[in-house]
Design goal:
By secondary structure, this protein is mostly helical. It has three domains: 3-61, 434 Repressor (Amino-terminal Domain) (Orthogonal Bundle), CATH 1.10.260.40; 75-140, 434 Repressor (Amino-terminal Domain) (Orthogonal Bundle); 157-218, lambda repressor-like DNA-binding domains (434 Repressor (Amino-terminal Domain), Orthogonal Bundle). Helices cover 59% and strands 0% of the residues. It is elongated and about 65 Å long. 27% of the residues are buried. The model is unreliable at 224-229 (pLDDT under 50). Keywords: DNA-binding. One of its GO terms (molecular function) is DNA binding. It comes from Lactococcus lactis subsp. lactis. This is Transcriptional regulator Cro/CI family.
Amino acid sequence: MKFSDRIHNLRIEKGYTLQDLANRLGTSYQTIQKYEKGISKPRLARLEELAKLFDVSISYLLGETDIRTSSTFDHTFVFSDRIKILRLEAGYSQKELAKMIGVSQGNYAKYGTEIGHIIPTIYRLKKLAEIFNVSVSYLLGETDERTLIEKAEPSSFPERLKLLRVESGYTQAEISKKLNLSSRQVYNNYEKGVNKPQKETLEKLADFFEVSVEYLLNGTQKLKSSKPK
């Protein structure tokens, strides 16, 4: 369900008119109307107010989940820790991730830190959650349950390689070391699609993840998976 539909349904459920909700949030009737029409979305601070008012999680409010739970979180410090851990786990530099979500490296570095306590816009929060395959609620510290968001089957070699690594719980550096690659950057380039491994390395990757080379390259003939060596 979309945010616009969710907020409309929650407002009706509470018996509020558009003006009632606007008054409770200290904003205008037109602002709430834009939310419900899908013209605009609130910033995080307003989203928190809505979550508390309706006693639901931000992930529920945004339509990420249909499981209705209450909102309880302290996002400032949890958020900064989580995006750092997730970024390192995914093998991205701050510069790379900043580019992916459309901000400067300087602004990205300030997310949830003591430099400025900057929290991303809702659009960028959802983009980060999508990149890391977690819920917005997990990013913000509403929940410690890291539920993976359902995603389509990876359609390319870089996507399949990254998914296999993340599911196995390895960092890029760890796999680079196990496969005796010259550097983490070499492996990173595989996941980015900059380069493709030579046949020998491709076979090592397939053996490590216990899948077929055909699966890595084409997404077919995946072997029964067990824990990597």
